[in-house]
Hints:
By secondary structure, the chain is an alpha+beta fold. The chain is 32% helix and 27% strand. Helix 11 (401-421) packs across helix 12, helix 13 (488-499) runs antiparallel to helix 15 (530-539) and helix 16 packs antiparallel against helix 17. The longest helix is centred in the last third of the chain and has 42 residues, at 590-631.
Amino acid sequence: xxxxxxxxxxxxxxxxxxxxxxxxxxxxxxxxxxxxxxxxxxxxxxxxxxxxxxxxxxxxxxxxxxxxxxxxxxxxxxxxxxxxxxxxxxxxxxxxxxxxxxxxxxxxxxxxxxxxxxxxxxxxxxxxxxxxxxxxxxxxxxxxxxxxxxxxxxxxxxxxxxxxxxxxxxxxxxxxxxxxxxxxxxxxxxxxxxxxxxxxxxxxxxxxxxxxxxxxxxxxxxxxxxxxxxxxxxxxxxxxxxxxxxxxxxxxxxxxxxxxxxxxxxxxxxxxxxxxxxxxxxxxxxxxxxxxxxxxxxxxxxxxxxxxxxxxxxxxxxxxxxxxxxxxxxxxxxxxxxxxxxxxxxxxxxxxxxxxxxxxxxxxxxxxxxxxxxxxxxxxxxxxxxxxxxxxxxxxxxxxxxxxxxxxxxxxxxxxxxxxxxxxxxxxxxxxxxxxxxxxxxxxxxxxxxxxxxxxxxxxxxxxxxxxxxxxxxxxxxxxxxxxxxxxxxxxxxxxxxxxxxxxxxxxxxxxxxxxxxxxxxxxxxxxxxxxxxxxxxxxxxxxxxxxxxxxxxxxxxxxxxxxxxxxxxxxxxxxxxxxxxxxxxxxxxxxxxxxxxxxxxxxxxxxxxxxxxxxxxxxxxxxxxxxxxxxxxxxxxxxxxxxxxxxxxxxxxxxxxxxxxxxxxxxxxxxxxxxxxxxxxxxxxxxxxxxxxxxxxxxxxxxxxxxxxxxxxxxxxxx
Length: 720
């Protein structure tokens, strides 16, 4: 029996025994037992005792069991929940409980020694003030953070590490003999040896010195280590990578549709190297659009359960930091045989769609192919051809211009159809940060969507929808991209708020159709309140995630959606490519279906978690470089837009996407407080208000590149 089957059998046995344990403790006749008593009662053999102990610990960690002070196992009390603790610089924290819409608030004196990222058991507190439910930590189930990244400060015979993350909320004490020779100003990684208590600080030992805070690249390296992003690939992974061919093998062409003669292109950013999607388009004899979306067949080179596969699953996604890419797969794959490079044959999974003049897919085929990209195009170049009508560019790519014009036509049709059904499109600018050779920012500007980026976006969306719908109706295990309906309470609050501006949205009970939000965004376009209402609408939405249930994508207003188009950089795409190929090759027999049914929930959950980690790391590096850029602009005056208001101040976003804080303490001439109902900062005596979305003139007061923080002030508050 191979390793995979052994693991499957073990997982099934663990799942069965876990359910039996939970059923036992939930039984009305159950009398609390210790581990030894329960093992005897359930007739667990001596050889299985260690596994049984592990299962009990996992069930406690998941919050499905509780232990009494005597070490007896009981079912969780109704007012007790398990979740992940998130600290803050101010001492209080929050606990995220899976399935709960809102995090629980943990007062500073009720955190029970919990550290950022710990898995904890909390007890709900009665009579919570305000809208957020309060709770107290009653038990730390599992420590989440094993290491901290920070700046070393030396004392006489010891040192402190000041954490980069303000969520840790306390310095780490390190004895001098455990400092690895660090000096003040060094960025270090410290392994926690004690989490401290009310009287003692946490303790640790330095395991790695990253460099001095002023050394080029150390700031980004600190973020990489803080988020524990795996950079280097292990020996086994690299050995497997070395065995991957550099060209398509003859054996791999067998049974595939040969599309090497079909005109097709890739369209990406100038600096992209991992090209995982190509597009083709022509009109058939009946005048219908024949769109081909051709995706690199990564699964041909990354075999399930190989070292390469486990590493890709662990990483979950490529991470695009401001100065580097941390890839999901080694470069030989991502930039080589899996990249759809110009002029070379490549293996692909193609979604070939027939689309009518209403933008509807009337027929499609998902097929394994061999392709050859004619030209590697950039967004800039295609924009010049279509939008700028640049004669030189049009001459250079004369043989492709008719296809590009057809693409523009079809993309507009697809967008119109999506808009008609109610898809919500938020057009908030992303940042493009340019760096010099030493990693210092030289320019920051909004990343603009243009005709070319929209073409690719529209084509990828329709391919993802088509594939998801196909597999939903086949009723096979699959990974979907799900965007759930907004929380009813947030929608009711938004509805009440926009009523003050003369707008309304139609609700069905407490639910809303995406078309209503889309209509609202259309109505507020180019009005003074556009920024305010757009941001509040976005805040009412939930975060998209990966699931095995097909519950639809609210933002796209579609019932079926998945991620199929980026297997080089996203694990869910690679995972569903395997399912597609198994189905195409007739390999989805019962045993394989059981395998996917058991594997996919964890893949979906882990991929969502890794996506969040990547997003946070990307945001952190962006903030650091933006703050570093603004150091050279202290004292300068800009006009921006109020992007957020909290009780501690007003956040203002500048046209170049840099965001800074006007701290409430710098607002002179009155006592200002935050009105949560109206999203305003209000002067108690003067009645002066600052509103979300309001245009405002600010002066740059300061910038801390290490903290990624920018401080603004109002020009009239400048002290002479």
